Amino acid sequence: MRIAYIAADRGTPVFGPKGASVHIRAMSNALAQLGHQLVLYVAQRGSGDSPLQAEVVEVAARMDLADAPASGDARTVLKERRAVDQAAQIAQRVALDHGQHPFDLIYERYALFSDAGVCCAERLGIPCLVEVNAPLLEEQGTHRRLVNHALASQVRERVFRHADALLPVSDALFAYALEQGADPARVHVIANGIDPHLFHPQAAPLALPQLAGKRVIGFSGSLKPWHGLDILLDAFRDIAVGYPERHLLIVGEGPLRGWIEGYAAGAGISAQVTVTGWVPLEQVAGYLRCMELAVAPYPPSDDFYFSPLKLFEYLATGTAVIASRIGQIETSLRDGVDALLVRPGDRQQLAEAMVRLLGQPQLRRQLGLAAAQTGSERTWPNNARRVMAIANPLLQVA
């Protein structure tokens, strides 16, 4: 089968370090491994060199922001117009290529101002599946700038109502899709996954001299406010004083790195905290295997829509996990079976859970074994098979 894969968001370069970029490459490779031919139509190629079993076509927008204001609403207006034009150019290129070598299916990663996939699908008479990773309109308005709210709403309505299938990554996004008018029969939850060749219990731990003889508690991911790192640092400080062998290993990079290092210095625990900075995906499992337990300490949230990649990576390596009892985490894991679940934002309960696992090696082993089994089921190849099981009946109708 020949598949056009559309990623119209310039903020997600295909060859980039973001989780979203990893997702695009991983799903593309998983579909290719099933024997399908993929062409990725992207707004931003990026400069990395990760393996990708697909042709990549970077489609330029006609607008240039070189002379645009450096910031403010005027620049945002131009960026939004460019995003609309970007989607139109991608749709035009997909249709042109289809005329020369027809596609059987369009797969698009939902982007704020792109309805390229559904427009092409209607024009070409082929199915379109749209993967939904976030409530983008609300997210943009809350965390960044959004000027043309009406147009973003119109694009969302077209996509959610006219895609042949919507593939949200969490139950919260399933509910969100229904709120926007999507037909429940066309909405299928497919959570994030992992590469089983990279993340598995036999992955070799890295030899890190600074961790020799330490009891390592770990976190992996981008260092952003909504990951609950302030809660983790507070809880770790509570259990670190007087126990110099206890060590917090934070694997990742992000805007909170300076704050983390400053907090550790101010609390007098700098010698017990290591922040690695950015780590290539191929090395993450080696860091996870250095941890006795790994933490996903998400804070309370009324709209927790994530399907956390880090969580499935923890599980797949057979690491004992402590995670917040929230959203997709609560429905994916069984407390006391494949993880310990704690109240979001509860510093004391998190500290108690960490001490409990450090002191009970048998419980750590039991949780790790169950975690590995759960993680082995949450893979990109399994996701790709589910996607094609959804697509095949649509292909027969088309």
- Number of individual domains: 2
Largest sheet: 6 strands, parallel
CATH architecture of the largest domain: 3-Layer(aba) Sandwich
Principal-axes geometry comes out as globular
Distance between the termini: 14 Å
User: What is the average per-residue confidence, as pLDDT, rounded to a whole number?
Assistant: 93
CATH superfamily of the largest domain: Glycogen Phosphorylase B
What's the CATH first level of the largest domain?
A: Alpha Beta
Quote the beta fraction.
5-15%
Helix content: 40-55%
Tally of alpha and pi helices:
14
The spatial strand order of the largest sheet comes to 3-2-1-4-5-6
Spatial extent as radius of gyration: 22 Å
Task: Compute the number of strand runs.
Answer: 12
Question: Which spans of ≥5 residues are poorly predicted at pLDDT below 50?
Answer: none
Question: Could you please say which CATH topology of the largest domain applies here?
Answer: Rossmann fold
Order of helices and strands: EHEEHEHEHHEHEHEHEHEHEHEHHH
Q: What structural class do helix, strand and pairing data support?
A: alpha/beta
